[in-house]
Here is the input.
Amino acid sequence: MSEARHDWTKAEARALHDLPLTELLFRAQEVHRRTQPRNAVQLCSLLSIKTGACPEDCSYCPQSSKYDTGVEAERLMDVKDVLDKARQAKEAGASRFCMGAAWRSPKKGSRQFQQVLEMVRGVRALGLEACATLGMLDDEQTQQLKDAGLTAYNHNLDTSEDYYGAIITTRSYQDRLQTIARVAAAGISVCAGGIIGMGESVDDRVAMLVTLANLSPHPESVPVNALVAVPGTPLANQEPVDSLELVRMCATARIMMPRARVRLSAGRASLSREAQLLCFMAGANSIFFGDKLLTTGNPDHDSDLALLQAVGLSPLDPDEAGSSASVRPNDGDQAWDAAE
Ligand code: SAM
Ligand code: DTB
Ligand code: SF4
Here is the structure.
């Protein structure tokens, strides 16, 4: 039975999101067990290859040049240093290596972009999946990334179209959707999600999920970030999000995008083990692995491996991780069941 739908309405999604939490968890589990590898979590390592001095004004971001956050601007890292980090990430158990740059978009025809392509080729040669998040792309850059072997491209919607202007003024929601469409058209897996805890309403959260779920195909990965409120940014004083709201987002995303990897992303450092377990039960099956996100902290390798062991989850086999969720056939339900 094909479960992928692309005609979600906001009312339907809101009704799901607002179910009694135990009921929502139960429904998300039903979907999860039919569509995802059992008891497995994808471990993605993240590295900021170009930090700070970004011309964009994203209110949540410590790397924007518009805010004084104490993040030191750095030049693009050397290819060799990036590949050393990738090797270390692989040794620690990661199957995907994600490289982030604080750019509005890569400079056309620049030496820096050529270096990023070399990084992508190098990461793939190590046997890792390669992901990048470099801002907006044009057609040529997208094709060059594809040719270099890029597995996935991360480009978040961040919030609803309605709330977007309250968070970012230097680019539009349509710009975001256009890059996502280019990436998908080039045959690169799309990683797209957002952030909660920025002062948005529940309707905004749900509207963002509807936009993501009505993309065809669904994104391969959906990062669910809780705002890390960084001093100096306009969102520095936001109240921390209630962890159960994160659980609701993971569960609703799982039901609406059955075959996507739901990635429990920023904000994990302040979640209890129990809250993370609830997110996994809700359908999250991917995490950033390593003690740093881009500029802020994340649980270290040992504590994450201890958590996975305590709850009986294993790192997703790189071979399984390599099969893009968005291109997996929809008749795969029984295959996963039978594989048990
Ligand atoms: N500059 C590129 C872009 O914005 O597309 C790539 C890097 S950007 C830092 C990647 C994503 O990280 C953002 O879209 C946002 O969703 C997330 N992010 C950044 N700062 C965050 C914060 N303080 N808390 C939670 N998520 C954050
Ligand atoms: C995503 O959705 N979250 C990651 C990754 N994609 C690039 C980034 C989180 C950044 C948190 C703030 C920081 O460390 O600077
Ligand atoms: Fe720049 Fe990306 Fe940060 Fe926005 S989220 S300020 S585009 S690094």
User: Anything to note?
Assistant: The CA atoms of residues 197 and 227 lie 5 Å apart.
